[in-house]
Amino acid sequence: MCQNHGVAYIKPGVVEVREIEYPKLALGNRKCEHGVILKIVSTNICGSDQHMVRGRTTAPEGLILGHEITGLVIESGRDVEFIKEGDLVSVPFNIACGRCRNCKAGQTGICLNVNPARPGAAYGYVDMGGWVGGQAEYVMVPYADFNLLKFPDSDQAMAKIRDLTLLSDIFPTGFHGAVTAGVGPGSIVYVAGAGPVGLACAASCHLLGAALVIVGDMIDERLEQARSFGCETIDLKKEATLAEQIEQIVGVPEVDCAVDCVGFEAKGHGVDSDVEQPATVLNSIMEVTRAGGQLGIPGLYVTGDPGAVDEAAKKGSLSIRIGLGWAKSHSIHTGQCPVMKYHRQLMNAILYDKIKIADAVNVEVISLQNSVKGYADFDKGAAKKFVIDPHGMIPV
């Protein structure tokens, strides 16, 4: 049997590449006839993974990480009808059965049947159903006909794999943040956070026709990356408030809509930029979004954070100025992106050269063995999206 290796979470700050079990078409003690085995072509390091690696979740030791997967089908169960061996496919990070009321309504991020603990599941993620992650050489994917997006031409897809690998999560997630914030032609939008999701969101805002995209962050290299594809930027380390800096750009201290691409490890702004204040982004985007505007919140918030700054935050309770949002009649949209709602259209945007998302998020391809260093560099704030190439299949 082929060997398999994967990136395992060991303890806060420590990951390592381990030999792991080769995947089986099985769910517990029964055969998974609706699943496939993938030879992984690309699998990406995500900021959500980094939350676990920092010890900011209840992730168990030995968890195999990775929920951003693109792969080649090498084995399929008896009940898989439409996905064939040899197909090159994108795997949504949401695991969805396709049968429950939420899946049938297109809410695949909160499938009711794939996680006994709560709605919604993902590969290699804490409290998300116990599914083995995909930062590995091989992985099993269930409900293949429903979940997988087949690329129409494998050679064309491999030529654009640095872009297409982002369809498993951050491109749809950033796009979802923009859509739920109401971004459209002529919008003036503020994107909080210039990590990979924030950059993908900013690029998505351009794709949706925004007139002006403003990105805020505290890391100079990430702000430079945002400027590289036409965004205005705000340095949140400065003493001037977010509203004051927006006014310098727009002429008024407000935007039409805003997207939180930071999540629960947010820090304060200005003199508090070194202090964790998890409600900072949520409160600041309510402050600067016009009355009647919309807020998209794809940034991750959790119900259990052992490293939080106070007891309330450890349970996900934050000091949100909901009164301000209510007074301004804001529409607020939270939760995981339902990847399948967008991935086919975004695939076409890539294949027909409407967007160069890999350039926007600054993709860097690394080997599986170099994934430990990739995690370390990402944790230091590298303005890159690390894509792991376990089998050396990505063209140079």
Automatic annotation (TrEMBL):
<dbReference type="InterPro" id="IPR013149">
    <property type="entry name" value="ADH-like_C"/>
</dbReference>
<dbReference type="InterPro" id="IPR014184">
    <property type="entry name" value="HCHO_DH_non_GSH"/>
</dbReference>
<feature type="domain" description="Alcohol dehydrogenase-like C-terminal">
    <location>
        <begin position="196"/>
        <end position="263"/>
    </location>
</feature>
<dbReference type="Pfam" id="PF00107">
    <property type="entry name" value="ADH_zinc_N"/>
</dbReference>
<keyword id="KW-0560">Oxidoreductase</keyword>
<comment type="similarity">
    <text>Belongs to the zinc-containing alcohol dehydrogenase family.</text>
</comment>
<dbReference type="GO" id="GO:0008270">
    <property type="term" value="F:zinc ion binding"/>
</dbReference>
<keyword id="KW-0862">Zinc</keyword>
<keyword id="KW-0479">Metal-binding</keyword>
<keyword id="KW-0520">NAD</keyword>
<dbReference type="Pfam" id="PF08240">
    <property type="entry name" value="ADH_N"/>
</dbReference>
<keyword id="KW-0614">Plasmid</keyword>
<dbReference type="InterPro" id="IPR013154">
    <property type="entry name" value="ADH-like_N"/>
</dbReference>
<feature type="domain" description="Alcohol dehydrogenase-like N-terminal">
    <location>
        <begin position="34"/>
        <end position="152"/>
    </location>
</feature>
<dbReference type="InterPro" id="IPR002328">
    <property type="entry name" value="ADH_Zn_CS"/>
</dbReference>
<dbReference type="GO" id="GO:0018467">
    <property type="term" value="F:formaldehyde dehydrogenase (NAD+) activity"/>
</dbReference>
<protein>
    <submittedName>
        <fullName>Formaldehyde dehydrogenase, glutathione-independent</fullName>
        <ecNumber>1.2.1.46</ecNumber>
    </submittedName>
</protein>
<dbReference type="InterPro" id="IPR036291">
    <property type="entry name" value="NAD(P)-bd_dom_sf"/>
</dbReference>
<dbReference type="InterPro" id="IPR011032">
    <property type="entry name" value="GroES-like_sf"/>
</dbReference>
